[in-house]
Amino acid sequence: MNKYLITVFMSLLFLSGCVKWDKPDDTFTSQTYLEMKNSFNDFSISLLSNYPGSIGSLDPRCNMAFFPLGIENLFGMVINGTDSKIRTTFSAQICFKKHGVFQINEFSRKLNDSLSHCCDIANSFWVDSKCKINDSFVQSCRQSFSMDVFADREFNSIDLAKDVSTWINNNTNGIFFLYDPAHSNSEWAESMLSVSIFANPYTRLFFANAAYLKSNWDVAVEDYGRGSFLSAKNNNLDVNYLSLNGNYSMYEDEQTRAVTVPMNQGAASLILFLPEDTDRNIVSFFKQLNKDTVDKWIRKGSPADLQLIIPKFEFGSKWECISGFSFDRSQKSVYLKNVTNDTYLALDYWRSYSNVKLDNSGIQASFLTHTQEGMSFEYKSENVSVDQALKHIAKSTDSVDAQFLFNRPFGFVLIDNTTGCIIIEGRYSGE
């Protein structure tokens, strides 16, 4: 009997994947899903309020956009390859401190499936031929994240760059280009080609999440004409405006004006918001945001016939977190200890790219989020703890009651009404 129990226990450890659990987490109920959904939205809003994180060279007043689920998927895959203290630290960064690996995997799988009606989501894992993959890790991520695995690749090669480019373009509606002469001078292409694949000879693997979505207006949209837009950098820009006439939920207090616009035949809601104080710094305004604030805009809004005057826009943005830090090798748990069987790997950095367009048809966006790892002993220590490093991660016509003119920086949050989760979020600052 004792031998039988020992055998069952060892089998459960093996089937659990590549993670050594500190506490049981093998249950996932409707209450678990609700708790994690609220945590996910907390994490999503924290991205907005904490931006730009660790990018010292990027002006925090610039345009930005996030696809929170892509970042959550990326971290979820990474969490499957971590152990002990570092796994707990990563989980806390996406507000899942109380939940184990099994629960994170289940939540990610269910949310990915639930949002498939409005988003195309893909995950991939690229591994150098010098590394032997841990099969348990791959099995776990394939099941929970539908992860494409590209193993035995020759890193630092043109062929790899082409293959990565093809995968990205296939999963972002062709918006991003990695290996394409016509786009070789773009910041994004240069950055990816030089840093992710070619520049560091010790790169051994990287994870990537790619996503594409499009949401259509539920109301009549007309061109309003050109007008002035005061950017966050106090520049007067000449932009094209759209006019949306309809009955919307409107919230207004001494700090904020927010309006909720239906999209995709009621399946989604686009919240547009801006500070009531025209002189308030947009960065400080965003820092006070939280999930309860956004919930209040939706819950306490009142119906009103409005003419919304919104600028057309299209922009790309980039966000990165931490470059060139490694972990103390005296720790019992080394980062990504469980991804490969033959070497310990350390996180170099992770990046998120976006391309967002708002026009007469609606809003469409593509996102790429990726991380890169290399052999830990090849990286120079910045004496940065894991917790310190990751905490960076994250405003009339006769037919309407009033005219709501968005002629200065404003924020936007697109919510999926079937799940209540945030799909995309960002800020249009004009430049």
Quick recap:
The protein is built from 11 helices and 15 strands. The protein is α+β, with helices and mostly antiparallel strands and 431 residues long. The protein folds into 2 domains: 26-215 and 315-390, 2-Layer Sandwich (Antithrombin, Chain I, domain 2); 216-313 and 395-428, Alpha-1-antitrypsin, domain 1 (Roll), CATH 2.30.39.
How is this structure best described in words?
This protein has 431 residues and is α+β, with helices and mostly antiparallel strands. The chain folds into 2 domains: 26-215 and 315-390, Antithrombin, subunit I, domain 2 (Antithrombin, Chain I, domain 2, 2-Layer Sandwich), CATH 3.30.497.10; 216-313 and 395-428, Alpha-1-antitrypsin, domain 1 (Roll). It contains 11 helices and 15 strands. The strands form 2 sheets. Strands 1, 5, 6, 7, 8, 9, 13, 14 and 15 form a 9-stranded mixed beta sheet that branches. A 6-stranded mixed beta sheet has the order 3-2-4-12-11-10, with helices on both faces. Strand 7 (256-263) and strand 8 form a beta hairpin. The longest helix has 21 residues, at 30-50. It is globular, with a radius of gyration of 23 Å.
